[in-house]
Amino acid sequence: MSNKKEQDVIQVGNLTFTKYINAAALEDKVQEIADSIREDFHEKYPMFLVVMNGAFIYAADLIRKLDFPCELNFVRIKSYHGTQSTGKIDIYMPPNIELKNRHLIIVEDIIDTGNTMASFIPELQSYGPASVSLTSILVKPEAHMHDIVTDYPGFVIPNKFVVGYGLDYDGMGRNLKDLYQLKE
Ligand code: IMP
Ligand code: MG
């Protein structure tokens, strides 16, 4: 067993994870997405809406690969899990934000059940934007409970818990450069 292999297994809190997608592969994927977004929006002065906290690393990497005028704002969305299946969420938008007739691009870390986007996208539509698009560095289609289309998807992954590249387990692991998957 080489040392390198052993570093691919890490502990986050009480759980064990194995390296799943390395930083170089993540960067290549972000470049592909940036190229697609450039093609569609370079003349449209889009506004990126970054969903805190998980999407902060992806958003930082993504917008630094764009060479055209754009704006960026952060939104915080709290969803209620557990017994309640109403899909109710609380949305915290920046005050005085003007979304009417703007091309909005939501930036997410992962589309899992899709509950968050199933509530957030209609809420954004009510502001009268020119368009609403969604990008997420990770998509878990097997977990989707709604018909959510991720216009600019990164990696399509199985329904297993992941940490790193901004995503956390119980608040930990956001700083990991690579993405790790829960070890069976
Ligand atoms: P939703 O289920 O699509 O509404 O996703 C809600 C949020 O749960 C995502 O934006 C993530 O922040 C978080 N989440 C979902 N799956 C994972 C995971 O595998 N690791 C870490 N966070 C996750
Ligand atoms: Mg999130």
**Strand order within the widest sheet?**
5-4-3-6-7-8
Query: What is the percentage of strand-forming residues?
Result: 25-35%
Which shape, going by the Cα principal axes? globular
CATH-scheme architecture: 3-Layer(aba) Sandwich
* CATH class division: Alpha Beta
By oligomeric state, this entry counts as single chain
Instruction: Determine the fraction of residues in helical runs and give it as a percent range.
Output: 10-25%
Task: Report the structural category.
Answer: alpha/beta
Distance between the termini: 20 Å
How would you describe this protein?
By secondary structure, the chain is α/β, with parallel strands linked by helices. It has a single domain (21-182), classed as 3-Layer(aba) Sandwich (Rossmann fold). It is built from four helices and ten strands, in the order H-E-E-H-E-H-E-E-E-H-E-E-E-E. The protein has a six-stranded mixed sheet with strand order 5-4-3-6-7-8, sandwiched between helices. The chain has a four-stranded antiparallel sheet with strand order 1-2-10-9. Helix 3 (56-63) links the parallel strand 3 (47-52) and strand 4 (71-79). Helix 2 packs across helix 3 (56-63). The longest helix has 19 residues, at 23-41. It starts with a helix and ends with a strand. Magnesium ion binds at residues 51, 54, 108-109.
Entry keywords:
binds magnesium ion; alpha/beta; Rossmann fold
Give the topology, please.
Layout lengths: L2 H5 L1 E4 L2 E7 L1 H19 L5 E6 L3 H8 L7 E9 L9 E4 L10 E9 L3 H11 L5 E9 L12 E5 L5 E2 L15 E4 L2
Parallel strand pairs: 3-4, 3-6, 6-7, 7-8
Antiparallel strand pairs: 1-2, 2-10, 4-5, 9-10
